[in-house]
Amino acid sequence: MTIPRALLLVILGCFCFCSSVLAARELNDDLSMMARHESWMVQYGRVYKDAAEKAQRFEIFKANARFIESFNAEGRKFSLGINQFADISNDEFKATKTNKGFIPNKVKVSTGFKYENMSIDALPTMVDWRTKGAVTPVKDQGQCEGIVKLSTGNLISLSEQELVDCDVKGEDQGCEGGLMDDAFKFIIKNGGLTKESSYPYSAADGKCKSGSTSAATIKSYEDVPTNDEGGLMKAVASQPVSVAVDGGDMTFQFYSGGVMTGSCGTDLDHGIAAIGYGTTSDGTKYWLLKNSWGTSWGENGFLRMEKDIADKKGMCGLAMEPSYPTA
Ligand SMILES: *[C@@H]1O[C@H](CO)[C@@H](O)[C@H](O)[C@H]1NC(C)=O
């Protein structure tokens, strides 16, 4: 049986028409993606050295935008969004914003857990230390960790720069995001940290300026028992607590709001502050955390992560190494 020539032409015509429509749509998608990339560059002040770099960054931007769109189409409890990290790959993100080399403390000077005998049933159902004036504004610190000073009752933004500059004896790895315990040890040894107005933050490793006067001191710190979200709840109900998380996943890179439910690993590589907890209207329990990647990341620089999950290590390992300064 032979196919009539007319039918063959119709089929062929259809095929050509359809594929040109598809090609046109692809071109259209690329053009609108290019426009998005351009306006993103303006918004974040990004400048590339030449057309080749721009083309390379555009491909990454496009791949990230597609990832974000398909993730958001899944209808999860949290969403992702284009932010300042939109033109870097996840490998670049991990290399610059987190610290995989993060070595947990071998020598612990921490003693006890002063909140151990609190009753979980007696704790408030919702805590947000921002409403009590105990949390300083979100900064964009690279991976340098902020310390919240609570014991004086004053709202002082302590100098992270001093911590970066002066705590370089292998303990806090300069700007590489050392563990919170190391930062606390430094503050104890140094006799305090300077008030930020007299030691401003410049987000790069600089030279340690000696002779600065301390605005606040930490005498010691304590660790929350490891892998115990109940213990963490007692501590966070009492004061902000530093936690370490695995912040390297794309869900972390592009988190834009809601309760983060993973996926993420538990290779601790990023320091963050737990400043509260609560329950959403749909009954999801969460930790409220303060990040240090500026206010265009997450919920104005803050993040919520699922609380009391089956894995004792907590979401992204947040229950593995929490610690807090004691006055
Ligand atoms: C908690 O209670 C036990 C038993 O009464 C006691 O030995 C321990 O010292 C208490 N811990 C604190 C931090 O008060």
Concise summary:
Helix content is 31%, strand content 14%.
List keywords for this structure.
single chain; 327 residues; alpha+beta; Cathepsin B, Chain A; seven-stranded mixed beta sheet; two-stranded antiparallel sheet; 7 helices; 9 strands; elongated; binds 2-acetamido-2-deoxy-beta-D-glucopyranose
Question: Please, could you describe this protein's structure?
Answer:
The protein contains seven helices and nine strands; from the N terminus they run H-H-E-H-E-H-H-E-H-E-H-E-E-E-E-E. The protein has a single domain, classed as Cathepsin B, Chain A (Alpha-Beta Complex), CATH 3.90.70.10. It is elongated and about 85 Å long. It has 327 residues and is an alpha+beta fold. The protein binds 2-acetamido-2-deoxy-beta-D-glucopyranose. 2-acetamido-2-deoxy-beta-D-glucopyranose is lined by residues 114, 116-117.
Indicate how many domains the architecture comprises: 1
* Arithmetic mean pLDDT: 78
CATH class: Alpha Beta
What is the fold named in CATH at topology level?
Cathepsin B, Chain A
Can you tell me the overall shape? elongated
Any chance you could write out the topology, listing elements then pairs?
Elements: H1 5-43, H2 51-73, E1 78-80, H3 90-97, E2 127-128, H4 160-166, H5 180-190, E3 220-223, H6 229-238, E4 241-245, H7 250-253, E5 255-260, E6 270-279, E7 285-290, E8 302-306, E9 323-326
Parallel strand pairs: 5-8
Antiparallel strand pairs: 1-5, 2-6, 3-9, 4-6, 6-7, 7-8
Bound molecules: 2-acetamido-2-deoxy-beta-D-glucopyranose.
